[in-house]
Design brief:
alpha+beta, 16 strands, 4-stranded antiparallel β-sheet, globular
Length: about 270
C-alpha cells in the first residue's frame, strides 16, 4: 500500500511540470515532452515559434534584441512567431501580465545567427526586464549550452535589486521539482539533472530537454510571479566521453611533442 502511494505521489509530481506557472516553451513542446528544437538555444536550431504556457488575460510580449532595442510580439492563441533575426547574438523574449492583485512574467533567452552585434550579452542580462526577474549569472557563452550534471549560478532581482532568502523552484520533465533559497546577494546555484532517456551516441542525436525556474514574491498585498525557461542538453562525459581519458590523451600528446622537439633539436646540432 505504501509503495503504491509513493508511486502515485511521484507520478503526480512529474505530471505537474509548470502547473500554475506562466512560462515560455518551444511550440509543440507539450508538458511532459522533450523540446521540439533540434539544438538547445543555439543558432538556427532554436525554434522560431514559442508558446506561452498557462497564458492568462491582460498579457503582452516583446523581444529584446542584442542591441537592446525592442520589438513587440503578437499572440495567435498562445503562440508567437519570432521575426527573422536582423543581427546575430542573444535575444530575450519577455511576457508580462497582471490581474487585480498579482503580476506575472516569463523570460527566455535565445541565440540567433546573423550580423554580429557589438553589444555584450552581459548588458542584455543586466537590463531590468520585469519587476521580479531570474537572471543567469552569467548566460552561457555563444556556441555553448546548458548541460546536465553541471552547476550554474543565477541571481534573483526585485525592482532591480537582489532579493535574499527567497525560494526558487527548479523543474524538468523527468525529475521531481527541487527548491533553492537565495543568499544575501540574491544568488543561488542549481545542478541540472541527468534525466535523459534512450541516449544515443553523438550529442546531435539526442534532443535537448527543458528546465523551468520559477519564483514568487509578496510586496504588501500584491503578488509577483516570474519564470525563466531554457533548453539543456545531455553531458557527453556522462555517457561516451571521459574527461580522464581526454586528459590522458592530451598528456601523451604533450610528451610526444617534447620527444619530437628534442629529437629535432638534436638533429640540428649534428647536422
Amino acid at each position: 500500500m505504501k509503495k503504491t502511494v509513493l508511486i502515485l505521489l511521484t507520478a503526480a509530481t512529474l505530471w505537474g511540470y509548470g502547473d500554475g506557472v506562466v512560462y515560455w516553451a518551444p511550440h509543440g513542446c507539450d508538458a511532459g515532452k522533450k523540446s521540439a528544437s533540434k539544438h538547445g538555444g543555439h543558432g538556427k536550431g532554436e525554434s522560431t515559434m514559442f508558446s506561452l504556457m498557462n497564458l492568462e488575460g491582460n498579457t503582452s510580449a516583446h523581444l529584446i534584441l542584442p542591441d537592446l532595442s525592442e520589438k513587440p510580439l503578437s499572440f495567435k492563441a498562445n503562440t508567437v512567431m519570432l521575426p527573422k533575426p536582423s543581427m546575430g547574438g542573444y535575444y530575450a523574449m519577455v511576457a508580462k501580465g497582471y490581474d487585480t492583485n498579482s503580476t506575472y512574467s516569463a523570460i527566455r533567452y535565445l541565440s540567433q545567427q546573423g550580423r554580429p552585434s557589438k553589444v555584450s550579452p552581459t548588458k542584455l542580462t543586466a537590463l531590468p526586464k520585469t519587476n521580479l526577474e531570474i537572471v543567469p549569472d552569467p548566460l552561457y557563452r555563444e556556441h555553448d549550452r546548458y548541460t546536465a550534471t553541471k552547476a550554474y549560478r543565477f541571481l534573483l532581482h526585485f525592482q532591480g535589486k537582489p532579493l535574499a532568502n527567497t525560494t526558487v523552484t527548479l523543474e524538468t520533465h523527468d525529475t521531481p521539482a527541487q527548491t533553492y533559497t537565495t543568499d544575501q546577494a540574491g544568488a543561488f546555484s542549481i545542478t541540472l539533472p541527468n534525466d535523459f532517456k534512450n541516449v544515443q551516441v553523438g550529442r546531435s542525436e539526442n534532443k535537448p530537454s527543458e528546465f523551468l525556474l520559477s519564483t514568487e514574491h509578496h510586496d504588501g498585498e500584491h503578488l509577483y510571479k516570474s519564470s525563466l525557461t531554457m533548453p539543456y542538453s545531455l553531458n557527453p562525459n556522462d555517457y561516451w566521453q571521459s574527461q580522464s581519458y581526454g586528459a590522458g590523451a592530451i598528456f601523451i600528446g604533450f610528451l610526444g611533442g617534447i620527444f619530437l622537439y628534442r629529437r629535432t633539436k638534436k638533429g640540428i646540432k649534428h647536422g
